[in-house]
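Example is below:
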Amino acid sequence: MDVDLAARLAYLFQENDMRILNDQFRDALYRQADASPRLRAHERLHEKSQDPVQRIVVGLRRGTYIPPHKHPAGQDWELFQVVDGDIKLLIFNDEGMVKQTLRLGPDNDTFAVQMPPNTVHSMVCMSDHALFIEVKQGPYREEDAKLVMRWAPSEGDEQAADYVKRLEEAATGNALTR
């Protein structure tokens, strides 16, 4: 993230120790996602990775690839609340079969979900952009934060863009292995 954008983001939501997430914050995060090769951007609300509760605001652009993954039991639960846009959440079994799909967002029947540990999941942005808040147990430890499933392309793989289209079209019962 460039320094100017980081300063603007910090200014937008920091006021007397209260963090304000407003339209300007959302739009700045979307611009950052648009400029990112990963087509997503995040802003941490917690102070450090050792904090017992991790709070992150994530901006997505359509086409971003979040590989199917799960979090080990030590990370416990994970909560997503979609505050703007339309996200499709996919829940898989360990072999790559879609067990469930949910459309999340303020204009959908479901706007938030809390997942237990070891739930294999991915999500795709179904609108031009989407914004969600992720809350999970800390501390964050990169080495065991998530396990990416071997049956799906890794991020940056040449097959990732085609796999995103498969995720967008997937329904319960579909196998989404390579």
